[in-house]
Amino acid sequence: MILNYQQFNGGHGTPLVVIHGLFGAQDNWRSHVLRWSEDRHVISMDLRNHGRSGHTDQMTYQLMAADVLATLASLGITKCHILGHSMGGKVAAQIAFNQPQYLHSLIMADIAPVAYAPRHERVLAGLRAIDLATLASRKQGLDILHGHEPDSKVCQFLIKSLYRNEAGEFAWRFNIDAIEQEYDHISAAPAGQPFAGPTLVLKGDRSEYIQAQHRPVFAQMLPYTQLKVMTDCGHWLHAEKPDLFVRLVKRFLHQVELT
Questions:
Q1: pLDDT digits (tens, 9 = 90+) for 179-211
Q2: What residues are annotated to the active site?
Q3: Residues 48, 157 within the same domain
Q4: In Å, how far from its chain's centre is CA 215?
Q5: How far is CA 207 from CA 228, 229, 249, 252, in A?
Q6: How many independent structural domains does the chain possess?
Q7: What pLDDT, in 10s, does the model give residues 25-36?
């Protein structure tokens, strides 16, 4: 599948590919992408079943990684840096483990290349509780979400993907049916061979996604990892501390390209 994408500062330097997380879209990264594109080519993508990319029944990491590579091939790009947040970080890791020749470096934002226990039950229940056919407003949808998910930041993030289609009806940018059906695959670990290239892992100090017990997996699968812990932020570290996040990524890319 060729994904929906946007390019910025095309042809300038080794491209940086930016991949969002579960329930996200490339639009969530626009302010970051604009800053990174001041001095390099940047490409942001909507993964399958998200944003404006196509919908499909399957969502394995092998397939999502193949989508990213097919999109890059359509652009004539054979080498890049890849940054992924959460699920997008696992997609990026899957590419690193199976097709390392495409990567100049890997950046994973608040995710480990491991299997996770289910953690989106409240979100999915809230989304299912919204009857799009009778929904009167986005505010009403937000209130319904709040009844299931107490984190207001998560609810505000989710409601960004609610829009009116050409018929004037409310719809979601993401494919809830496929996400529910394929949730076991989404929770799984990317698989393959260790990636021997430079890797940056950014962690929010209040997030539980990366834990001490994951160190052996990083050591085995990503042996050349730099870990940077961002203080006073959680899983949405790029949104909570955007300036610091942008600087850390820029600094890492500069270091990698000097070596």
A1: 999 999 999 999 999 999 999 999 999 999 999
A2: 86, 235
A3: no
A4: 21
A5: 13, 10, 19, 22
A6: 2
A7: 999 999 999 999
CA distance 226 to 255: 12
Q: How far apart are CA 102 and CA 136, in angstroms?
A: 46
Please state, in angstroms and rounded to a whole number, the distance separating the CA atoms of residues 92 and 105.
10
In order of 133, 162, 204, 251, 256, the CA distances from 172 in angstroms are 12, 5, 28, 36, 38
Residue 189: CA count within 13 A, CB half-sphere: 13
pLDDT category of residue 137 using cuts at 50, 70 and 90: very high
CB-side exposure of 121: number of CA atoms within 13 Å? 3
What residue type is assigned to position 24 of the chain? Answer: G
Q: Is residue 179 part of a domain?
A: no
Structural domain range at position 71:
5-115+188-258
Which residues, in sequence order, are CB contacts of 23 under 8 Å at separation 6+?
50, 123, 157, 158, 161, 174, 179
**Amino acid letter at 74?**
S
Instruction: Say what the pTM is.
Output: 0.97
pLDDT surpasses 80 at 259: no
Q: Cα(91)–Cα(87) distance, rounded to whole angstroms?
A: 6
Strands 103-109 and 80-85: parallel
136-142 LR contacts (CB < 8 Å, sep 24+): 138/162, 141/170
Q: 24 with 83, same domain?
A: yes
Bridge partner list, 7:
43
CA separation for the pair 90, 7 (Å, rounded): 22
